[in-house]
Amino acid sequence: MSSLGNSNNIFWQECPVGKLERQKLINQKGCVVWITGLSGSGKSTLAFALNRQLYSRGKLSYVLDGDNLRHGLNKDLGFSAEDRTENIRRVGEVAKLFADAGMICIASLISPYRKDRDACRAKLPDSNFIEASFLTKAVFMNTPLSLCESRDAKGLYKLARAGKIKGFTGIDDPYEPPLQCEIELQQIDGICRTPTAMSEQVVSYLEEKGYLEDQ
Ligand SMILES: Nc1ncnc2c1ncn2[C@@H]1O[C@H](COP(=O)(O)OS(=O)(=O)O)[C@@H](OP(=O)(O)O)[C@H]1O
Ligand SMILES: Nc1ncnc2c1ncn2[C@@H]1O[C@H](COP(=O)(O)OP(=O)(O)O)[C@@H](O)[C@H]1O
């Protein structure tokens, strides 16, 4: 991406129906759950399990999955550091809109760079006491490369090892694990909790923080 553009002479337009009114109408609180980890670490599986679990509790969530967004919104982006940064920036903005609409937004992207994840977090500050609405909580799929690679659901690790894909995360491109995150889901070779068990952990966290309360 060369230039991100710059607009002058623009003014914020305040919508008369506010966030708190929207939340009351649909009886839920908007927030963002950001899932980060290597390819094959289980991000999409967790995102979809969480989506289903929230649905069965009467809470509407929506999954922004990196792979899927790259079919549309982000189809112009590749995997250079610059493009990954722009990818995460855009998804952070979209996630913010979803949360503002009152939705529980589940973003599942490799999001390999700490600074990009931090920038998304900064867009979604934790609530003050009047507007308890946004939450950007990072869920780190701490799955070792060896396990991701042994899964190789899409055959991409094999291609990356053969040098047929350049700049593959974990092989010849970096992944910076979170230094501190709200939820860390560890998987080790040979012992994996089920996706349902993992998503229950995230649901418990949301419940504990009051994000699943009636509005
Ligand atoms: N070079 C390279 N590195 C990493 N991943 C690659 C690459 N090329 C293609 N893919 C496929 O793209 C999916 C990752 O997209 P993301 O948008 O989540 O990536 S990123 O956050 O911008 O790093 C990723 O999906 P997941 O396996 O679900 O993580 C891969 O299927
Ligand atoms: N908790 C789990 N236990 C066992 N296998 C899992 C688990 N989570 C994911 N998998 C498997 O790992 C592979 C990669 O999962 P996926 O969700 O596509 O990862 P990612 O979105 O991070 O690339 C899939 O084949 C999936 O079935």
Q: Number of helix segments?
A: 8
Distance between the termini: 41 Å
Briefly, what CATH class? Alpha Beta
Q: CATH superfamily name?
A: P-loop containing nucleotide triphosphate hydrolases
Helix content class: 25-40%
Largest sheet, strands/sense/barrel: 5 strands, parallel
Structural class: alpha/beta
Q: What is the CA-based Rg, rounded? A: 18 Å
Spell out which ligands are present: 3'-phosphate-adenosine-5'-phosphate sulfate, adenosine-5'-diphosphate
Order of helical and strand elements: HEHEHHEHEHHEH
Q: Poorly predicted ranges (pLDDT <50, ≥5 residues)?
A: 127-133
Instruction: Assign the CATH architecture.
Output: 3-Layer(aba) Sandwich
Overall mean pLDDT: 90
What CATH calls the topology is Rossmann fold
Strands ordered across the widest β-sheet:
2-3-1-4-5
Number of beta-strand segments? 5
Function: Catalyzes the synthesis of activated sulfate.
InterPro entries: APS, APS_kinase_dom, P-loop_NTPase
Catalytic activity: adenosine 5'-phosphosulfate + ATP = 3'-phosphoadenylyl sulfate + ADP + H(+)
EC number: 2.7.1.25
Task: Kindly summarize this structure in a few lines.
Catalyzes the synthesis of activated sulfate. This protein is an alpha/beta fold.
